[in-house]
Design brief:
With 468 residues, this protein is an alpha/beta fold. The chain folds into two domains: 1-47, no CATH class; 53-124 and 225-468, Rossmann fold (3-Layer(aba) Sandwich), CATH 3.40.50. It is 41% helix and 13% strand. It contains 18 helices and 13 strands. It has helices spanning 43-46, 53-56, 65-68, 100-106, 127-141, 153-165, 181-189, 201-215, 225-241, 258-273, 292-299, 311-323, 343-353, 362-375, 381-395, 417-424, 428-434, 456-466; strands spanning 8-12, 20-21, 37-41, 95-98, 113-117, 145-150, 169-175, 193-197, 218-219, 249-253, 281-287, 356-360, 405-409. Strand 6, helix 6 (153-165) and strand 7 form a beta-alpha-beta unit. Helix 4 (100-106) packs antiparallel against helix 14 and helix 10 (258-273) crosses helix 13 (343-353). The structure holds ligand F0G. Ligand F0G is lined by residues 125, 150-154, 222, 253-259, 334-335, 380, 382-383, 410-411.
């Protein structure tokens, strides 16, 4: 039951449904219609900040963990937890890098493209922004075990938070052979119970919800609305780095669609609170081999429609995938997802922010990744989808060359070293096994290792030829 005087509670995302849950409920589904839930705030009673000074005051108090954390210094904008319940390991120390080489590659003017580098988080991806919030909620409800299905980064983040805080036992579900080595290494090293299911992420996601419900295990996938509260802060840090100016576009890879959902909520709330005067446009980039969101929004015109979105379009799409036994398939394993659980929230985010979706091929992804590596901060393939997507939007003339664009680099380069090495390798077998079989024809920006004999003259000659 939700008490009428609760200023924080969970509310069904469907504006036409009045389903609510107590802040402590962990079912994360509407009790009336089964839809997704939002963390809802009665802002009038919470006295939210009226200017960004509330953050600036914290810059000089970095020895306080709640002021240091890149998530919790914005605590007033995700006020669901008392300060003593917050679980933080110092996440969110990220950089917004102005990347001119990437601007040139994408057809943008210098000074107009920024990379929000989330690879600097403790577990190497943006997931830690959400995990600290989920762990904080888990502490409030007294959970002892936490589970997720994952393409690798959620599980790495869960494993890190469990091992670093000792707060819960981690149980992770992964598809077989579907997870990049850097991420699997993290889960194993940090002692998570790792259950490898004969299936892919979509199978694992369905199973983990079933198991978590049956065993009363706390679920940390992005279906958990508290996780998405933490991920809002990625946008706050971008604004912070831009002197509280709103960019024209935020471009983000789309997998389970948690990020875009939380970004939409973040900007909607900031606008409502008067902390920003306009919202940026959001662009969600799918891999072509896992393009449910692009397919439905751009080819079939699926829209939020104030919550009355056409559910039959989604069901028909899933029936067609099943009928033809189509499985998600992309080198960007992090976003190899055909059944994104946050799709309705993502539709709402596009409505809030005048957003759109695009798809990019694996060839575009690996080439963009090489450009990010050589002219910016490195990233894993899924993150490069954002840069490849921006390039497409420029070619289409949707984004103007002097608009200010932020691409979110969601995960660290070292998460998936196999993809990187295969791209730069001169060995055709290494290239083919990883990339060729996915339809990548060429490594257009390969930086090949130069093979020399162990002889001084030959080494010097190689340097004179290649690094003049
Ligand atoms: N980029 C990276 C590096 C990811 O790990 C993910 C998702 C995404 C983008 C997509 O984000 O789901 O919010 O649309 N990885 C999840 C996982 C699914 O299990 O680690 P999203």
């Amino acid at each position: 039951m939700v008490a009428m005087d609760d200023a924080v509670y969970q509310r069904c995302i469907d504006p036409n449904c009045d389903g609510v849950l107590d802040v402590k409920d962990t079912s994360f589904r509407c009790p009336r219609c089964g839809d997704l839930m939002d963390v809802a705030y009665d802002w009038d009673r919470l006295r939210p900040p009226t200017s960004w000074k509330f953050v600036e005051q914290k810059w000089s108090r970095r020895t306080d963990p709640l002021c240091y954390s890149g998530v919790w210094r914005f605590r007033e904008l995700l006020p669901f937890a008392p300060p003593e319940c917050v679980v933080t390991i110092g996440e969110g120390q990220t950089i917004l890098q102005c990347a001119d080489a990437v601007a040139t590659y994408t057809g943008m003017k210098p000074g107009r493209v920024f990379l929000q580098y989330e690879g600097m988080n403790p577990s190497g991806s943006f997931k830690d922004n959400g995990m600290t919030a989920a762990f904080t909620h888990a502490r409030i409800v007294g959970a002892k075990r936490a589970a997720c299905a994952s393409t690798g980064n959620t599980s790495a983040s869960l494993a890190v938070y469990c091992s670093a805080t000792g707060a819960m036992r981690a149980i992770i579900f992964i598809g077989s052979g579907k997870i990049a080595y850097g991420k699997l290494a993290q889960a194993l090293d940090h002692g998570a119970l790792t259950i490898q299911i004969a299936g892919d992420f979509d199978d694992a996601m369905a199973r983990v919800q079933e198991v978590a419900g049956k065993l009363g295990i706390y679920l940390v996938n992005s279906i958990n609305p508290f996780r998405l509260e933490g991920q809002k802060t990625i946008m706050y840090r971008i604004l912070e780095a831009l002197g509280w100016e709103v960019p024209d576009w935020v471009v983000v890879p789309g997998g389970n669609l948690g990020n875009v959902s939380s970004f939409g909520k973040a900007f909607g709330e900031l606008h409502h609170l008067g902390l920003i005067k306009r919202v940026p446009r959001l662009a969600v980039i799918n891999a072509a081999g896992a393009n449910t969101f692009f397919h439905l929004t751009q080819r079939h015109g699926l829209r939020w429609e104030s919550g009355r979105w056409d559910r039959e379009k989604l069901s028909a799409h899933y029936r067609a995938l099943d009928g033809e036994n189509v499985r998600a398939a992309t080198i960007a394993s992090a976003i190899e997802i055909n059944r994104p659980v946050n799709l309705p929230k993502a539709l709402r985010a596009l409505a809030t922010c005048g957003g759109l979706a695009r798809e990019v091929t694996d060839q575009e992804i690996v080439d963009a990744k090489a450009k990010v590596g050589s002219g910016g901060l490195g990233c894993e393939p899924a993150s490069a989808a954002a840069v490849a997507g921006l390039r497409r939007l420029r070619l289409e003339g949707v984004v103007d060359s002097d608009e200010r664009v932020v691409c979110v680099l969601t995960g660290h380069q070292l998460k998936d070293p196999n993809a990187t090495v295969a791209y730069h390798s001169s060995d055709p077998k290494t290239f083919d096994e990883m990339l060729g079989r996915r339809g990548v024809r060429r490594a257009n920006f390969a930086n090949r290792a130069v093979q020399v004999r162990n002889e001084l003259a030959e080494i010097i000659q190689a340097i004179e030829v290649y690094a003049r």
